[in-house]
Amino acid sequence: MQLSVEEVKENREEWMPLLLLADPEETMVEKYLHQGIMVAVYGDGEPAGVIIAVPLEGGREWEIKNVAVAPRFWRRGIGTLLIEEVERRLPKEADTLWVGTGGFDSGPFLFYEECGFQFDHVLENFFVDNYPEPIIDEGEQCVDMYYLKKTSFRWG
Ligand SMILES: CC(C)(COP(=O)(O)OP(=O)(O)OC[C@H]1O[C@@H](n2cnc3c(N)ncnc32)[C@H](O)[C@@H]1OP(=O)(O)O)[C@@H](O)C(=O)NCCC(=O)NCCS
After folding, report:
1. Domains of the chain, each with CATH number or no CATH
2. Closest ligand 1 atom, residue 73 Cα
3. Pocket test for ligand 1, best of 111, 117, 137, 140 (most atoms within 8 A of CB)
4. How far is the CA of 85 from the centre of ligand 1 (A)?
5. Per residue in 2-40, pLDDT tens?
6. Which residues, including other chains, have CB under 8 Å from residue 76's CB and lie 6 or more apart?
7. What is the pTM of this model?
């Protein structure tokens, strides 16, 4: 498969269908859609995956708000590539990259661990308090947000 990577600066809304795979509430996606760094990957010319990372207060800490790979491209290294590509583009002063996920030991949680993130803390009731509808992931309702972090992320 031929992979190509592109930083997305304009027309970010075109990626909404893929972004909704990771964060099913459009109003939540719109809050960060136009912030920070957005990178997309194409597989054989087709949209395959996308990631958005935004700076937190102060700019040294960043958070991955969304990473999504189209199902037919799963388990082929594209998610890992997206994380690497975002890390490459972080400013020099960035020293911590956060990511939150809805399930402890879920597929995404294990994926983040594979990418070098370590579990840090839980934000209780995040999904219940912030989403109008229940969020179901792998058959389980998401209640708490599990945050993982990475402090050493220079690739290549
Ligand atoms: C999570 C996601 C981004 C992973 O993308 P991907 O391209 O399949 O990931 P990779 O191929 O780079 O996976 C790297 C490693 O992570 C781990 N991993 C990835 N997906 C996994 C899963 N569902 N279950 C367990 N481990 C998983 C594996 O160790 C994998 O290596 P392997 O395939 O050699 O075993 C993708 O499944 C996805 O988009 N899911 C839907 C959206 C979503 O849940 N996003 C995260 C929101 S918190």
Report:
1. 3-150 (3.40.630.30)
2. 7
3. 111
4. 16
5. 999 999 999 999 999 999 999 999 999 999 999 999 999
6. 1, 43
7. 0.96
